Amino acid sequence: MASRGRKLHPANPRPDRSWMCALRRAGLRASIGALMLRFWTYETRGNAFVLLREGAGADGPALARRLCTDRLRGATDGLLLLDLCDGGLGVRMWNPDGTEDFCANGIACAVHLARNLRGSETRRVATPYGSVKVRLLPPRTSCTVEVELRTPVNPMEPAARDRSQGADPCQALSVCLGSQVISGHAVSAGSPHFVIFCDALPDQTRLNSEGPALERHEVFSERMNVTWCAVREGGLETRIWERGVGETLGCGTGAASAAIVAVTLGLLRSPVRVASPGGRCFVSYVAGSPPRMVTRVRPTGSDRIDPDYRGR
After folding, report:
1. Any idea which residues carry the catalytic annotation?
2. For 5-63, how does the pLDDT look when each residue is reduced to its tens digit (9 = 90+)?
């Protein structure tokens, strides 16, 4: 028996709407992409950073607390927000706990990214703590950056913050931790450090005990970074406890502070090779002038993220 159902006429095939579906999908992706924040990741001397462009609607402190401690994306040492308006470069940096700070290693990464984004080099970077000179060392494809930090001052004396010439930027201190007395020097080249010279660098147990205790010690008017140093083979080996971060594999202001104290005390001559668990850099310093740090940076990736992302 012949079928009595409706037949499709071969001359009128179903219209192909696949291109319309593809267009809708592309439009949806474009809409979603417009709402997402583009970010880049960089590494230098063991420090890992997330970089964003300013104006993307990012809440710096909140996003730092979420992104920098994300177990799935990998914990990082800080979030940097870049302002590329008017041909200049402004940089702000937040630690994983949401506190803002000056970061020489982060500035080096920002300078390299800014060159890649707009094709021209930056000579000066504006920060909330003042502007600093920077330059990418040749050849053009180089990832080596020189950052001129802030003129060093004694962070224990607010009157010294006018950066007057001739003042000794290093203050010798003895800090009591229980029955133990720890001697070092306080200095700031953008961020305050308590620099401790020792014959042997602290082991993990000692670092985890002394680091947080010194960071928040009552003798310091603000939270303090701590850098342990040992003179080795004409240079310095260091371990760092960074405020708002904890132990970190590298720190630009820490390397500069260690070199400043070493040169001031006559332990080493400039330039100083400073090694940390994450790598090494070179710091040049002349009394009364800003220290200059040379370090290598490495771009490690790029992605997009929902600005309302809460982390995992």
Report:
1. 103, 251
2. 444 444 444 444 443 444 344 443 444 444 577 889 999 998 999 999 876 556 788 88
pLDDT range class, residue 157, cuts 50, 70, 90: confident
| Chain segment 47-93, per-residue pLDDT in tens | 999 999 876 556 788 888 887 876 445 568 899 999 987 778 999 99
pLDDT (tens digit, 9 = 90+) per residue, 124-146?
Answer: 999 999 999 999 998 777 799 99
Strand partners, 238: 229
Closest CA to 154 of 143, 145, 163, 144: 163
Pick the CATH number of 38-149 from 3.10.310.10, 3.90.1150.10, 3.30.379.10, 3.40.50.720: 3.10.310.10
Q: What class is the 158-289 domain?
A: alpha beta
Q: What is the pLDDT of residue 166?
A: 53
pLDDT of residue 26: 45
Cα distance between residue 216 and residue 62, in whole Å: 23
Least confident of 84-88, 223-227, 283-287, 293-297: 84-88
- What pLDDT sits at residue 19? 39
Structure-token match 């405020």, residue found: 243
